Predict the structure.
Amino acid sequence: MPEVVIRTSGLTKVYKETKVPVNALGGVDLEIMEGEFTAVVGPSGSGKSTLLHILGGLDYPTAGHVEVGGHHLNELNDRQLIDFRLEHIGFVFQAYNLIPVLTARENVEFIMLLQKIPAREREARAAQLLQEVGLGDRMDNRPTELSGGQQQRVAVARALASRPQFILADEPTANLDSKSAGNLLQMMAEMNRREKVTFIFSTHDQRVIEKARRVITLEDGKIVSDVTKA
Amino acid sequence: MYLLLAWRNIWRNRRRTLITLASVAFAVFFSSLMQSMQTAAWGNLIDNAVRFYTGYIQIHHQGYWDDRTLDNSFVNQASLQSKVAQHPGVVAVVPRLESFALASGTDRTKGTLVIGIDPEKEDNLTNLRNKMRAGTYLQAGQKKVLVAEGLADFLRLAPKDTLVLIGQGYHGANAAGKYEVAGIVKFPSTQLNDQVVYLPLPEAQWLYDTGDRLTSLSLLVDDPGKVEDVTATLQQELNATQFEVMNWQELMPELVQGFEIDRIGAQVILIILYAVISFGIFGTFLMMTTERRYEMGVMLAIGMSRLKLQSVMFLEILMLALGGTLLGILVSLPVILYMHNHPIPVSGNLAELYQNYGMEPVLPFSRKSDIFLRQAYTVAIITAVLGIYPLWFIQRLIPVTALRS
């Protein structure tokens, strides 16, 4: 029986960087089970990315409580949050965000280096992951030598390399053509099944929404619908 | 991989890295060249000034330097001279007896500085023989004098003429003597040239009735850099209530002041140079951090600690600084070695002035290793201080803000 691995209550985020405070999240109560493949949808400015950032320990909520994988993120300091992200979270960003001076293999290895995994193990896992995402023949290419779709596949391999409990993907298909997006989603769904990693997407993309088993809709920082497909 | 990452990062913008390396190298090259010339020129000047008269160190009776009279002379003990001569670092000991007298030629009289010398030892220190313009050099045991050219002209004296000295001897005794002029010496310093008379030491002691007394022992040392140590140890070894030991800095404070003024002037130029270079380096650091703000945000987001990110940035800074410094040393080393072996010749009046002081008419260059090391330290310190900015930038970077940028 899968257990609840993410729990938020009264999650609120107010940005006070402008003259008029912006309420990005207005009291979000949410529970996500282990191994879910969830899409958070909603119009621009609805709070999708903010929710993902808070769940990923990149940002603190203004109010409310957030517990991810048994960690109460409100209580962690900057250094503890970095360690939390390294050990538990894999990020996939819209703009791929690979390190441009490293090759595909080195980008995947890098996160394992941060985890102090021995070199031989790092090399083997990086090669295996890149094979799995279909880039076995492009391992020694730098990001600028890869297409957008290929870069995003490297980003997924990097996100999985640290064996995270959660993968948070912020608009992962936004910059991809239809075929690349389809392949990427297929690959992530496969890994979700196989590795039991919990995936949470923020997206506008209908293809992602169709693939997701649960769809949470946000509007003005509040959950307006939460549908789990049969 | 961190080293690899840092290395690849600095070559992301090849042109900017090359400009930064070149500006650091230029600063090291220019400042090394300047320091090399200044060190060698002053080293030469000090060596010549010291060999011109004072020696590197002098030993007097306590209180002599403030009240230079024969009453403050000391007994010339053989044990003292041999003790000083055997002191580590001392290569020559030159005894002198100095006082004043009225000197008369055929029909003119003038106040003079009379110096009793050991002719051979004096020549060893001051190259007095090379300053001869007429006649012959003094020999020990002679009852003859050497007269400075300006004084000889005033008294209308030539070699083999007679000079009469009248003055006050030790403890108020009368001092009077008649001497044949052995030769004429010329000094570039007008002050010395118009008033010096040299006598063999025993003759001067007889003239002033001092017995076997001296006013000073001038010392030459093997390494000018050890003068302060030798002075201090000699002062410890000799009876401090009886003797004062002074080094050339104390004997010629005006030379020290001149050196200090020149050094400060050079420092100001170097500070301006380094300030200009610092702005260039800082510009690079600013660009390195600003253009990678987003990427650094990603690195923090995926779990790279700030300390590791700062370490990578520090490695980049270190590579730029060390690379530029090494390049600067590699460029300046052959140039300075060449200049050391082929100093710049000086011509015209300046050349004549140099020769009058017994100096070779050239602008010399020093090849001392500390010249290069000093530049390396300076660049390292500047870079370390400027490098605080990127490290501070990373410390304050908020990943989520960087990802939004």
In short: The first helix of chain A runs from residue 48 to 55. The CA atoms of residues 110 and 124 of chain A lie 13 Å apart. The longest strand of chain A covers residues 4-15.
